[in-house]
């Protein structure tokens, strides 16, 4: 009997020890999760951000980058509070998203801005474009307006309000070549280039898709408009505990290694800092 009782006590002790160890591990994992900064991103921005995350880790800050393939889910996920921040949109895009939804999201700070271009794998200049050429442009209001302004800069169309970056297809006043527009989600313009005569494109998406040389556009936009810089966006009620996001943004904006990654990923002449 004594031996049986001793065995029971030993078993109870083992169970208690296991529970205590499990509780300690769970608590450590919980603390680790709470101290982790989670940022939703577009895959085209991943490499420079990963360089910044690696540097942050060396400084004791854990950053988890979560990739989204579309331009809707990052704001939905952020608005639900499932991530701390996102990095995929510029201010005009965010303004339009908030106008169309009940998102409670704001800009925290800005990252890199990139030039955009008009690309063709079939023609060397705009004069060679055929009548009723197929042209792919983004389907969201803001980036579509940006594409139409670039087509206007190329003298392929005229807009009713030349300076309106929110112009739509309905705002085209003149279309001499009767260009046929194909609307797709912004990230897909890079993959649609093989099927059309001309495509509005983002250098970083073209580099990611490997469908065209991002530095070989027929025309790039001529300005360095910082309102199109990509934002670090957060919920309106976001509290930057321990300055985690601030530290990460500072690394992104000031690290020589991040600059090298931006040069390699976007092209040294195709991006500019939105924070300066």
TrEMBL record:
Q: Which PANTHER family match?
A: D-METHIONINE-BINDING LIPOPROTEIN METQ (PTHR30429), D-METHIONINE-BINDING LIPOPROTEIN METQ-RELATED (PTHR30429:SF1)
Membrane spanning segments where? Answer: 9-26
* InterPro entries assigned: Lipoprotein_NlpA
- GO cellular component terms attached to this protein's record: membrane
**Do you know which Gene3D superfamilies this protein is assigned to?**
Periplasmic binding protein-like II
Q: How does it sit in the membrane?
A: Lipid-anchor
Instruction: Enumerate the UniProt keywords alphabetically.
Output: Lipoprotein, Membrane, Palmitate, Signal, Transmembrane, Transmembrane helix
The source organism is Acinetobacter amyesii
Q: Where in the cell is it found?
A: Membrane
Name the family the entry cites.
Belongs to the NlpA lipoprotein family.
Q: What is its main location?
A: membrane
Protein name per its UniProtKB record: Methionine transporter
